[in-house]
Amino acid sequence: MSVTTHVLDVTQGRPATGVRVALELRHGDGWRRLGEGRTDEDGRLANLLPPERRLEAGAYRLVFDTGEWFAGRRVEGFYPEVSVVFQVRDATEAFHVPLLLSPFGYSTYRGS
Asked: 53: Cβ–Cβ under 8 A, 6 or more apart, which residues?
């Protein structure tokens, strides 16, 4: 299936456009990058998993480059990066992991 995200700037009440996001899979003691992209004008990234790759059970990580995004808006943020680690048990499901973002905090959840 797919791994998607939606980043919202809760300070401005708008989608966070242009946030760089990477999808990684735990591989031994480290992480292997599977895909990356930038959020669109609606703050969404439709599918981080490359078309030739199938989702499998395991630990995944979304890495949001919040430092770059805040710097581009001339905002001093506290978190230069947000990493969200989640577990895929059933690879036939879709995984939507939104990020609610502000310069001094963030929140995430499993969406649908």
From this structure: 34, 35
